[in-house]
Amino acid sequence: MQLFTLLVPAVLVSDSFSATFRPTRDGARHSEALEALGKQAAHPRKTAQDCGLTHTVGGAMKLNERSVAHYATCDSPTDHAGFLRKRVERHHHHTHHHHATSYQRRWFVLKGNLLFYFEERESREPMGLVVLEGCTVELCEAAEEFAFAIRFDDAGARAYVLVADGQAAMEAWVKAISRASFDYMRVVVRELEKQLEEACKSLAACRNSPRRSSSSGRKRHLSNPALQPLQEKPTILENGYSTWGSGGSVPGGTTCPDRDGGHVKPPPLPPRRRSAAGSTAVSPAMPESPVSPDTACFSKLHSWYGQEIVVLRREWQERQKRGHP
Amino acid sequence: MGPWGLQRGGGRRGPARPPAEKAAEILMRLPKKGSVLKKRLVKLVVNFLFYFRTDEAEPIGALLLEHCRIAKEEENVFSISFIEEPERKYCFECDSEEQCREWIEALKRASYEFMRRSLIFYRNEIQKMTGKDPLEQFGISEEARFQLGTRKPESPGLG
């Protein structure tokens, strides 16, 4: 496997912790150097395992390159892919001389916050990788039609100038890259986490209608819509349920799924990743979900619901015996 | 549009520099034969784990944390290995079980793939509960990467 170019923006590695150490050399040079020297590194690998790119500090910044290449070429979701012409960057001291800019056509693959590029579409390993954190994407049609540039905060870091085949392709790439950062995903995930929690809370209210709660073969004794008396017994039910607006019917717009699909509380942790050992436990509630939830958490919720239903039924039946008030 | 909307001038700016999520001095051993535990400053930033000699400002190495397995080993120790080479383990010895647990939790969630799955999960749940697609407000509901069933058939063990 050959060494490949890696551009890791210095923003990723130098932050407040730098203050603890000796003053660093210019962070900008760091990322540019990584890349430049990566290209020059035609020497054979130092070791069979950790192969790396040399940079100006001396020694090698290792990367789990084999795994990275594997990830680049495996079946995991590709967020965007296509041919782009990549401007060839000369060594910087040549830029003072006038020379023709040339472009090379490469196959680009965007996975998450990683932009890989390959010599050919069929290449088994990437030539390079750009880590897309903290980057800006700009159109630069002055250079070429359908050209755009990926720039980083580091003043010295090179920009990647890429040229698409047409307007649509260019727009698609710019959009994809500008939303590719890990941080952006994190913002969206946190927002959805919050929304789910809020949806659960309002579900807790309508969940008190036992008609909604029965599933998996339980008898529907409790589907009597006129169940206002239930509201008088808050003790075992989840906090925060509200009174019915109109005699037991569900507040407009909110669907209350059956028991399997809803929870009073969202799972306390985001679902754990599957272990590489290949455990494929998927909650039966979500057959299409690739996520395997924390099963301990879900079974706790299910048994809690089971208790709730049992108590509700019992109270309803007792009320029936006493005769409805 | 979410927080990363179009800026004046046409450039789309990504988020500002992401801080390290987690950093600590931890004993680390590479999966090389004869490798010994060495004290390293280990920094988790997005889906990369950088490691530094403790008195240096530039990392000696980085691990991309996609398709990896984080496992508890013996006391205070966890390992990182990658699915195509599960026996090659990067080992980390922490100061305490608690620190070990914290790092395992953080690392397990540190991949883009994990976040993608979480997003799809939450989206699906919210949609079931409210009938609405929460991604519409972000203008990203049509993106392929957020669709259920987007994943191609996986080879066994892909996480």
3D structure, described in words:
In chain A, the strands form two sheets. Chain A has an eight-stranded mixed beta sheet with strand order 1-7-6-5-4-10-9-8. By secondary structure, chain A is an alpha+beta fold. In chain A, 30% of the residues lie in helices and 16% in strands. Chain B is an alpha+beta fold. Chain B has a domain at 22-114: PH-domain like. Helix content of chain B is 19%, strand content 30%. A seven-stranded antiparallel beta sheet of chain B has the order 5-4-3-2-8-7-6. The model of chain B is unreliable at 1-10, 13-17 and 150-159 (pLDDT under 50). Strand 8 of chain A pairs antiparallel with strand 1 (12-13) of chain B.
- The DSSP helix count of chain B reads 2
What form of chain B results from the Cα inertia axes?
Answer: elongated
Radius of gyration of chain A, in Å, reads: 29 Å
Question: Nearest-angstrom radius of gyration of chain B?
Answer: 19 Å
| Neighbour order of strands in the largest sheet of chain A | 1-7-6-5-4-10-9-8
Helices of chain A, by number, come to: 7
Distance between the termini of chain A: 80 Å
Looking at the overall shape, the CATH architecture of the domain at 22-114 in chain B is: Roll
> Based on DSSP secondary structure assignment, what is the total number of beta strands of chain A?
10
Indicate the proportion of strand residues of chain A. 15-25%
Indicate the low-confidence ranges of chain A by residue numbers.
14-59, 212-267, 271-301
- Quaternary form: heterodimer
- The structural class of chain B is alpha+beta
The span between the termini of chain B is 31 Å
**Percentage of helical residues of chain B?**
10-25%
Main beta-sheet strand count, sense and barrel state of chain B: 7 strands, antiparallel
State the low-pLDDT regions of chain B, or none: 1-10, 13-17, 150-159
GO biological process, one term (chain B): receptor recycling
Domain PH (chain B): 19-112
Protein name (chain B): Pleckstrin homology domain-containing family J member 1
